[in-house]
Amino acid sequence: MADQPFRAPKGTRDILWPDSARWRALVDLFADVAGSAGYLEVIPPMFEHVEVFRRLGEATDVVRKEMYSFEDKGGRTIALRPEQTASVVRAFAEHRPPVPWKAWYAGPNFRYERAQKGRFRQFDQVGVEALGPEDAHLDAEVIALAWRFYQRLGLRRITLLVNSLGSTDDRQRYVAALRAHFEAHLDALSEESRATLDTNPLRVLDSRREADADLVAAAPTMADHLGDDSATHFDQVTDALDALGVPFTVAPRLVRGLDYYVRTTFEFAAEALDAAQNAVGGGGRYDGLAEDLGAPPTPGVGFALGVDRTLLACDAEGVFEAPAAAVDVFVVDATGGNLAVVLTDRIRLAGLRADRSWDDRSMKAQMKAADRSGAALAVIVGDDERDNGTVTVRDLRGDAGQEAVTLDSMIDTLRARLR
Length: 419
Ligand code: AMP
Description:
The structure is a single chain. By secondary structure, the protein is of the alpha+beta class. The chain has 2 domains: 19-167 and 227-317, Bira Bifunctional Protein, Domain 2 (BirA Bifunctional Protein, domain 2, 2-Layer Sandwich), CATH 3.30.930; 329-418, Rossmann fold, CATH 3.40.50.800. It is 38% helix and 21% strand. The protein contains 16 helices and 16 strands. The chain has helices spanning 19-36, 50-54, 61-64, 85-95, 136-153, 168-184, 191-199, 201-204, 213-217, 228-244, 289-292, 307-317, 338-349, 363-373, 383-388, 410-418, and strands at 40-41, 47-49, 69-71, 77-80, 101-110, 122-131, 158-164, 249-250, 262-270, 279-285, 300-306, 329-333, 354-356, 377-381, 390-395, 402-406. A hairpin with an 8-residue loop joins β9 and β10. α1 packs antiparallel against α5 (136-153) and α5 runs parallel beside α10. The relative contact order is 0.12. The site of adenosine monophosphate has 18 residues, from β6, β10, β11 and α12.
């Protein structure tokens, strides 16, 4: 035996019941919300050829610093996916399903980040991607879907920020203006931001350093550099959100961590969490990505929501509690155990959840296990019951007491009592 128990690697964790049940319930709810709008599940692999993710932009931290990449035994350079949009769009480019193609997904991503509360090296996201239409109403549908999902979870303190990053051309003009602005005040900029300015001027807007605050506040905004098409598109998105009653704030300096976004971008923050980890989800349009990955030019829009952080937000708001007990019925068998084998099986076949205890424990120990299981009812058999062909059904939670019933009516009794 090892001297110390093994531990999960830094930045990863085990999700045990009841957290796992809550996790499952969250994904099921997401599947339901996405399914209600015609999104169907896609399950891409967890690793890809590294080039797929390089398309996200060599200048992004996610690609440059945080990707788990390695050479496999066949000499391929592989990366564990740091996010799923690139994988899903690669799947689209490979299979060319008819458009509009509306897909949802759920699963883990991997980033070599500084591990801390709400920031993991393996973390899960749920998300949707919609490929084909350029329609601004699709952007609004996608944003509203995330909003409705948060509402269904019971979250009330979520804020939505939206912005337009313009078309690729608009963006080039804007980036040039930004660069000029920061370069004119280079001395006042933090050293880190000066380095960022070289590779990715947009990301300087993300700086949370105090030294940069004034310069960032005074920076030109994308809104002043939007072409007519992008401006109209953005107006249509915000009009549709108004019509849907989805509250939002236009955040002219909102940029996102991934380079592929054009036009609409958005982010959800959970006000109940500390600022350091309150980003619970985000997304936007990525009209050039499909073409970059080998498909004919196909616009796309989507979002990803962090499961871990969304559940932290649920904790902070005291909503979306873990489902209660694991089983409905606990079988207590004082006759030596053979009956427990058959009775639990019968109860399970009837569609109820049943468990039992093991290793020939005393009646008292089995009753304790029944209480601990959280089951609502115990089915108890001793020698008398066995000889009479009956079982005793006992209420474990309330004061409904117990009754002896025949084996034939056991299931009906359990069902009636559980209702
Ligand atoms: P991104 O793909 O970076 O736009 O992230 C989308 C969402 O995923 C964020 O809003 C977070 O909720 C979540 N997320 C991103 N990175 C992490 C991480 N390292 N640990 C936990 N959640 C994360």
